[in-house]
Each structure stands twice: as structure tokens, then as C-alpha cells.
Amino acid sequence: MARKLHHEPIPKIAKKDYARELKHLQIGLVALHRYVISRKLKVLVIVEGRDGAGKDGTIKRITEHLSPRETRVYAPGKPSEREETEWYFQRYVPHLPAGQEVVLFNRSWYNRAGVEPVMKFCTPEEHEAFLKAVPHFEKLLARSGTHILKYYLDISRKEQARRLKARRKDPLKQWKLSPVDQAAQAHWSDYSRARNSMLERTHHEDAPWIVVRADNKQQARLNIIRDILSRVPTGRKAPTGPRPDPRVVREFRESLIAAAWVAR
Q1: Starting at the edge strand that comes first in sequence, how are the strands of the sheet with 146-154 ordered?
Q2: Class assignment of domain 2-6+17-76+93-258?
Q3: Which of 33, 181, 194, 243 has its CA 20 to 30 A from that of 100?
Q4: What is the pLDDT along the chain (264 residues), one digit of tens a residue?
Q5: How far is Cα 108 from Cα 92, in angstroms, rounded to an integer?
């Protein structure tokens, strides 16, 4: 069973079919956002993943046609000296959605579950304290009416190497380069262990992790949007439109790690 999970092929999609399906799904997102605005819902979409996993492109396709007044993207940078002395979640709180808003975090408080412990930007004690605290924090948000969608974009080591190499050669993507990117391949196994711990310990009913196999960018984007449309309540008894492909998107369970459905 493990081999079957790992080797399920993700179908390629022709450019014209991708463009047509993306437009159809983006129309669905616009309709969903109109409902969010009309009911004053609060939607938080967290997008995590390794360097080069496609977070920026995915967020761009989600937000492309949404109302700019009620849509925000937050990409946290290095904390300031003051922020380093604050309660860890404090600097994220001002960016949380109000009623009518869809907010997307391009990385999030989960920096403390991935890049920070791997690159020694936090202590083991701070890492452990975060893993214990974050489910409680998210439960408070969920029970105050925030709909939390957490996506982890997972790519293979070979595909990450290819994308990072292409990034270094592309003059339009120079802003993406950082010392952390350079260390991504060298610390591959460390990031895998950190990812596994994060998924296992911070997946919970109020904010489950949705794992996305993202070597195929087009299929990843389409299926994340399908998943969003299936999860945000709209008042209908059942969501409309195609369901996400389980070869691409699955709600986390520990067997996905054991079966190597996520990259090792």
C-alpha cells in the first residue's frame, strides 16, 4: 500500500486546458468571496512549503481576481529587535482577517516549526514551546469565527534543485534569492524531519493540514483552489464543482509519511 501511495502518477495538463480550468475555478473563488463579504466571514489561508515549492505562484492565482479591498497577503520577514522580545504570535495578530476579509499568509508562524529550528534561529526549547502552543492558539482563532486553511506544498529534492537553479539564472526572480535558499538542499533531511514533526503535532480538527504534492505546479494550483472551494462554508448543503484530486491533495494523516506520499 505504501508503494501505491507514493507512486500514484500526477497527470500532466495541457496549457489550454489548464488556462480554461483555472479561469473556471477563479470564477468560483470570486463567487465565494462575494459570499464571504456578504456574511462578514473571516478566512485565513496559510501557505507553507520548502523553498521553491511554488507558494508565490499559488497565492497569485488565488488572489488574482478577488476584491483587493477585502484581500490581503502577508509575507513575514525577519523579526525586528523589538519583535524578538514579544510573545511569539504577537506580530502576526495585527494581520489576521476581520469580517469580509480573505488573508493569505505566505509563510506564517510556522517559520518556528521549519526554517527557524533547522537554521538555528531559535532554541530547541522555543521550538518545543511553539509546537505545544500553536494548536491552542489556532483553536482560539477558529472558535472566534476565523476559518483557517493550512496548506503544505511538498516537492521532491530533485525538483527543488531544478527550481532553485532556474531561480538563480532568472533576472526577474533575483529578489527570491537568500542564504536560506542556498542551504535548502544541504539541509534537506533536517527540513524533512522538521516538516514531519510539524504536521504530526499541529494537525487538529479546527485547523487541519492539507498536504499538496507540488512537483506539478499547474495541478497543485488547480487542486488547492478546488480544496478552498470545498472547505469554506457557503450555505449550500454541498460544494459545487470538481473535488480536489487525491493524487495531488490530501488532508494530513500520519500514514502519508510512512507511505512516502510526502518527499523524504
Answers
A1: 71-74, 102-106, 42-49, 146-154, 209-213, 249-251
A2: alpha beta
A3: 243
A4: 444 454 578 889 999 999 999 999 999 999 999 999 999 999 999 999 999 999 999 999 999 999 999 999 999 999 999 999 999 999 999 999 999 999 999 999 999 999 999 999 999 999 999 999 999 999 999 999 999 999 999 999 999 999 998 888 877 676 666 777 778 899 999 999 999 999 999 999 999 999 999 999 999 999 999 999 999 988 765 555 679 999 999 999 999 999 999 999
A5: 8
Grid coordinates representing 210 are 492539507
At residue 9, the pLDDT reads 82
Domain boundaries, the chain: 2-6+17-76+93-258
* Residue 22 amino acid letter: L
Contacts of 205 (CB under 8 A, 6+ apart): none
Contacts for 150 with CB less than 8 Å, ≥ 6 apart: 46, 48, 207, 208, 209, 210
- Provide the whole-model pTM: 0.93
